[in-house]
């Protein structure tokens, strides 16, 4: 159920946009990219203050109890500005796992996430970086009443800054999820990333003490929900980013004069912008559908299908608009100083993070029963 | 599919929806969901354009007329029309609701009447016609008696529609019309046509056009079928030789025909987005294409699967876009640029699907070996080039999106201020 | 070895082009399409007279003993005009099989093909229409010293008009080729075709008397050569057709005026023509390489690789230019009367005839050792 | 690869080729054919642009200079140059033959000298320079002592190169130059630069430009590296502040600089087609991509195979096109439009290859997990947008093909007749 009206969501958008205008401009972004944590803690606190971090946290855990429809507003704005934040790791991935586990012990963590006090991350992928819900080589074993984790996780989004790690590991009762809050026997390594505005780490465990989240064997079902939530979230972000690229291209095409004409009057540029617009419209429809169906609104597409459709269409739109935006800008567009390449980097990174187009094609067909 | 009806007097609309359901339950069967494909059963024709025998065409037109008559009698044939001329006087929202409910029933295709006549010409007559023209044509059109066609395009006025050269000159209390129209669908069935005519060649092209309603049975009107590359003759050429028209059949002002044309075209663009995947919908659906792949031994081929997935993702997203646009209208919103976008996507999706299917079929696409669902893809394949051209070429749609939606500057050096008589024309003349 | 100089080949081109200007214009093409045989016998005789049918026939069999380089000239012209002829079935497919068989008994047939007296076709594909070199369900059995064929062949190019059929069939000694010259126990059916300028038939045998061509078990090696010859020939044809589409688009873009301008001055049209030109140049290079390497010229690409490359690149170029040519022409371009659709039909047909892009991709990779 | 040398005095050319082989055999090793890929061996960097440390860059420049010195001494450093200035006085065919033979040997990359300086600026000085300028620069450049760069593009003169605003005003027996240039490769290593300067703003833009040779060590010349999105700084901005130049370093006439620029650009276009797959050639070759697929478990995946096949077909056909163009030149033909086509294809092929490789690599393209040959694809991927822009954008190349090769009409309303001073410029100025 959608808990908000359209005007309420527009209010939310305005407050997030105001924040980002203050904390998320080009200079702030460069500062964040260069900083130790990879994001601005002031922006994170401000996002918590306007309630942007607690939208999907259940009311029982001190959140607003809203859904993907509301979160989409925040994600579109984050995608529009590419303000570096640990939103994906903390609020989308880790919090969804905590909620989906149904474990009341997760509530204090969710409360701290909602208030901005805790950063969190989900450690799932291993060697090949591919999303999986079972067959983990990371193992958990009971050692005198304490679970201990051993193994290595690659590509943990926001893994280096996370206070709380949700870790998928094999147990005798099947793939299960664990919470790691201490830094004992945890080795984290910030990785060089394609996307300069999103941090990714590898995390290794060596007998690390952990708490079981939910019941043993629960991991596959919970991770399936996290996967879909991540696809829906990325889609919203991608629409924001794609629209930003379109807007930048249109503005430049109106401003830039070559051969005595605004370059936007040349059909090659005009039609390129029209193609970008068509992609943005399609992506926006797909992201909207995915969010509303994730919230179980009636008369919407099946949620699992809509999520995979959105991941396909929005990844394509983000990649296309980021590429063409650089082209419309010409030389200036491929300089390091111009933000255009950050959108290209984000687009490719988000397209590939969950396995890429090949994996998503099979995901969609499975959901369509083919 | 039922629609959420928030924001717009729910009770009234719900009552209207219920009355529509009652009427349809009494007059037609519900469509059944086609999820299973029975390969090899029935006809395997996969077409975008009609290509019926003349007898079949007449039968289909008769069925369309009959169903229009039935729904008109029940008050659902012209929901938005003025009551004075036989309409129901309700809102566009009521109309959309009725359409979405009717789509759940198995009723005759009324495209031959509704796409051009009732959807585009009717509203234009309402907006610009004389009382005489309204009274004479509107009730007949919406009662299913009269079919109307659009006499706009000419050999030298395609993308550049305002360049029409068909001449209408004053003659007593009417006009004498000479010229040639082209790409006229349903002209062979039509009783009336709306023609754009050049009445003043001494002013810029947009300002010397007059719109006239032409009796298609009048002397001097000759309709010749125009065969398209896929084999059928969906369109016509219409030759107008000394056709005489009373001035009372003029729509709008003398030399003011361009704004009449815009009314018609606006209604065209609004209708395009809602057509879904059109006549080929079943053939390019997931179950049908999956069955085709299975039949041709490539259901497990990762390349074919990838293409199917990408195609279906884009098609489903297009359907979300169309459905959301409809929801937006139903809840009282203004039409957005979705229609132009939808038209571009629609033609791309069908084109990809047709080429994909041809590749899955393999060499049997080349000649008709009699295999079911193989050679039959050719008709759709051969229709795809037209989808990028009809109703505004891709280039024109992108100009519209670029200029009107995104606000990008027009090309310099346009001819909008040059008198028609001085305009440059193609050397070969067609 | 190339047996001719560039000026000699240009002479050949001129003489073929003169012929086609006389016998292969739009009206003649329509007549041919509507005729019983599907081609103009006068044009065929004229082609024989200028030597166009005997170029690749060995000198020992009364031919010129040239190669693909010379035949490419004729095929480009035939592709340019889409003049319907039985060239592909007779001169490319059947004659290549006869030559490749190394069987002296084939010489009289080759002589008659070279002189235009005999039309011929190669019957290989069965049920699924896919090219194969073995596993034929059509069988040949010796019956008192006479071979007798039983089985059905689909998609036999020029099969209905052929006086001579070269048929692939299974024998106890492996897949073999046979000659059928009588009409006894042969059932032919002209099929409805996508390409209106090339006839295709199905042929059924029911104890049909036949002569063995070459030795039993020879079919795979011979058919491999026919496949490559067909790819090289189609490539040349496709370049001719693609260039015709480009030329037609450029001419129309210069002539047609809309909005007070020649439409070729609009970038959308201009760049479309430029894209077509780039495809034509690439295709022409690939077809040239394939022909010269087929004739074993030194310092050329490996012949098998070049043939598959040409089939891929030239199929794409023909399809692209045919599609865009219709688009440049707008409404008139998709009428039945305008020749544009004939190029679209030919392009799709030639792209799919030998199995289509999927089959050719695997063919190329195999030849590249992947 | 050896070339057939028909049609052009075979004996002379064969003797020349033999002398080149003798020199190269004595001075360098032959390249070995790389058909086997040893996955995981050596560096996995896959780059299009250089991204060396300053020390490495200096080392590479020194090696290039040394090799140029060696071949110049042997008579192969300036094969087509006038003997008067140290050249060999032979034909372009000799030059092409030497290049194709040298390509068989493992010699230092001389791109930093030859792409811009020896390939483009040198011929321009020969064609338009004063005797003083020729004598001063040409021997030094071809002996490997001087590196030259091209000071053409500016923030407001990219595609519209004739729009340069860098001003040169008469000052005694020379010129005083002020302005900003951009996208200047090798400027950080260069001793001389060829600058296009605005000398008369009162005439149309093409007619008020003068070309000057600028001493890059002169006072007022500041070179700032310009970092591109893939990380390195292949290009520079060059700021010119009151730089003083003797008039004897002018090329061509005063206000006649546009034809000088055309000479330079002509030599650029001629060189483009011959570059093959460039620095990324090995990475996008069949064996390397097949090894990548094997390493990532998709060598049997039909989708990956199809994309590999299509990519390799287009790459191989492009190499045929380039090789045939070279053959054509070697046998005395005139350059055709192949160079522009080849540039378009080249950028398309590399772009497809980079995205394909990224997809094969999978999520490990997103962050550097340390896997060999995975994250390393990013540098190429991040260079692909530049390939569509550098040396003439895709749009400009297509205009050239459309207008100059196919003869299609230019856009109306050009500004070629408007005085430079009255031209419209971008509002934001960059």
TrEMBL record, chains A, C:
The answer to whether keyword Cytoplasm applies is: no
- Which cofactor is recorded for it? FAD
Q: Tell me which UniProt keywords the record has, alphabetically.
A: FAD, Flavoprotein, Oxidoreductase
- Give me the segments passing through the membrane: none
Specify the superkingdom: Bacteria
Protein family membership: Belongs to the acyl-CoA dehydrogenase family.
Q: What is the protein's name according to its record?
A: Acyl-CoA dehydrogenase
* Source organism: Knoellia aerolata DSM 18566
What lineage does the source organism belong to?
Bacteria, Bacillati, Actinomycetota, Actinomycetes, Micrococcales
From TrEMBL, chains B, D:
Basic and acidic residues bias locations = 421-430
Pfam families reported for this sequence: Acyl-CoA_dh_1, Acyl-CoA_dh_M, Acyl-CoA_dh_N
An annotated Gene Ontology molecular function: flavin adenine dinucleotide binding
Q: What cofactor does its activity depend on?
A: FAD
Q: Which domain of life is it from?
A: Bacteria
* UniProt KW keywords: FAD, Flavoprotein, Oxidoreductase
Q: Which residues form the Acyl-CoA dehydrogenase/oxidase N-terminal domain?
A: 66-145
- Gene Ontology, cellular component aspect: plasma membrane
Q: Which InterPro entries does this entry report, sorted A to Z?
A: Acyl-CoA_Oxase/DH_mid-dom, Acyl-CoA_Oxase/DH_mid-dom_sf, AcylCo_DH-like_C, AcylCo_DH/oxidase_C, AcylCoA_DH/ox_N, AcylCoA_DH/ox_N_sf, AcylCoA_DH/oxidase_NM_dom_sf, Mycobact_Acyl-CoA_DH
Give the Acyl-CoA oxidase/dehydrogenase middle domain ranges. 149-243
Q: Where is the Acyl-CoA dehydrogenase/oxidase C-terminal domain?
A: 256-406
The annotated region (Disordered) lies at 411-430
Family designation: Belongs to the acyl-CoA dehydrogenase family.
Family annotation (PANTHER family): ACYL-COA DEHYDROGENASE (PTHR43292), ACYL-COA DEHYDROGENASE FADE34 (PTHR43292:SF4)
This chain's protein is named: Acyl-CoA dehydrogenase
Q: Which source organism does the UniProt entry give? A: Knoellia aerolata DSM 18566
């Amino acid at each position: 159920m959608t808990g908000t009206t359209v005007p309420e969501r527009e209010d939310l958008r305005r407050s997030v946009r105001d924040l980002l205008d203050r904390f998320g401009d080009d200079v702030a972004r460069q500062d964040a990219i260069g900083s130790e944590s990879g994001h601005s803690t002031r922006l994170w606190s401000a996002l918590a203050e306007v309630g942007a971090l607690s939208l999907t946290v259940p009311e029982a855990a001190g959140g607003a109890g809203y859904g993907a429809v509301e979160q989409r507003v925040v994600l579109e704005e984050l995608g529009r500005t590419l303000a570096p934040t640990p939103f994906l790791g903390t609020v989308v991935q880790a919090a969804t796992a905590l909620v989906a586990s149904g474990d009341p012990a997760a509530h204090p963590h969710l409360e701290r996430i909602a208030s901005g006090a805790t950063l969190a991350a989900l450690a799932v992928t291993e060697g090949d970086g591919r999303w999986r819900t079972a067959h983990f080589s990371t193992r958990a074993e009971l050692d005198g009443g304490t679970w201990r984790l051993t193994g290595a996780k690659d590509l943990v989004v926001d893994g280096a800054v996370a206070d709380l790690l949700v870790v998928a590991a094999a147990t005798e009762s099947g793939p299960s999820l664990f919470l790691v809050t201490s830094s004992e026997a945890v080795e984290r390594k910030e990785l060089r990333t394609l996307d300069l505005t999103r941090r990714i780490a590898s995390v290794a465990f060596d007998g690390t003490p952990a708490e079981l989240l939910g019941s043993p064997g629960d991991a596959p079902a919970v991770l399936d929900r996290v996967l879909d939530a991540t696809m829906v979230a990325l889609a919203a972000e991608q629409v924001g980013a794609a629209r930003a690229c379109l807007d930048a291209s249109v503005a430049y095409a109106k401003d830039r004069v070559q051969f005595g004409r605004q370059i936007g009057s040349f059909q090659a540029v005009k039609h390129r912008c029209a193609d970008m617009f068509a992609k943005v419209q399609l992506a926006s429809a797909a992201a909207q559908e995915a969010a509303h169906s994730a919230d179980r609104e009636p008369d919407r597409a099946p949620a699992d299908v809509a999520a995979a459709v959105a991941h396909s269409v929005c990844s394509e739109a983000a990649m296309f608009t980021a590429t063409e935006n650089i082209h419309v800008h010409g030389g200036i567009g491929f300089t390091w100083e111009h933000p255009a390449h950050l959108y290209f980097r984000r687009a490719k990174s988000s397209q590939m993070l969950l396995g890429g187009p090949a994996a998503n094609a099979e995901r969609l067909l499975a959901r369509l029963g083919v | 599919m039922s629609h959420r009806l928030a924001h717009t007097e729910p009770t009234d609309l719900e009552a209207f929806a219920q009355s529509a359901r009652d009427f349809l339950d009494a007059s037609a069967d519900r469509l059944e969901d086609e999820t299973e494909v029975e390969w090899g059963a029935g006809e395997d024709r996969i077409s975008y354009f009609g290509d019926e025998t003349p007898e079949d065409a007449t039968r289909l037109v008769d069925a369309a007329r009959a169903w229009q008559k039935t729904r008109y009698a029940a008050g659902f044939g012209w929901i938005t029309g003025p009551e004075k001329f036989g309409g129901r006087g309700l809102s566009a929202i009521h109309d959309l609701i009725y359409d979405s409910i009717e789509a759940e029933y198995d009723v005759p295709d009324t495209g031959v009447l509704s796409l051009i006549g009732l959807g585009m010409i009717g509203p234009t007559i309402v907006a610009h016609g004389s009382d005489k023209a309204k009274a004479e044509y509107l009730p007949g059109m919406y009662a299913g008696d009269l079919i109307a066609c659009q006499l706009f395009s000419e050999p030298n006025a395609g993308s550049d529609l305002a360049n029409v050269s068909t001449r209408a000159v004053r003659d007593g209390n009417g006009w004498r019309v000479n010229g040639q129209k082209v790409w006229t669908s349903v002209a062979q069935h039509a009783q009336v046509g709306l023609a754009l005519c050049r009445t003043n060649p001494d002013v810029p092209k947009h300002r010397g056009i007059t719109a006239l309603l032409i009796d298609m049975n009048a002397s001097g009107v000759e309709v010749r079928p125009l065969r398209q590359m896929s084999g059928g003759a969906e369109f016509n050429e219409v030759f107008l030789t000394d056709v005489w028209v009373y001035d009372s059949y003029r729509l709008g002002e003398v030399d003011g025909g361009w704004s009449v044309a815009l009314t018609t075209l606006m209604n065209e663009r609004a209708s395009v987005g809602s057509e879904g995947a059109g006549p080929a919908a079943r053939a390019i659906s997931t179950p049908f294409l999956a069955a085709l792949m299975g039949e041709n031994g490539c259901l497990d081929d990762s390349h074919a699967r990838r293409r199917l997935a990408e195609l279906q993702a884009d098609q489903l997203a297009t359907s979300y876009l169309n459905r959301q646009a409809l929801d937006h209208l139903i809840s009282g919103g203004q039409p957005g640029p979705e229609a132009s976008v939808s038209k571009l996507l629609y033609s791309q999706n069908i084109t990809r699907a047709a080429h994909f299917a041809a590749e899955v079929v393999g060499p049997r696409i080349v000649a008709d070996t009699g295999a079911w669902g193989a050679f039959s893809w050719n008709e759709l394949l051969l229709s795809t080039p037209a989808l990028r051209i009809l109703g505004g070429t891709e280039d024109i749609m992108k100009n519209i999106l670029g200029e009107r939606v995104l606000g990008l500057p027009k090309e310099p050096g346009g001819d909008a201020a040059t008198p028609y008589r001085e305009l440059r024309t193609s050397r070969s003349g067609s």
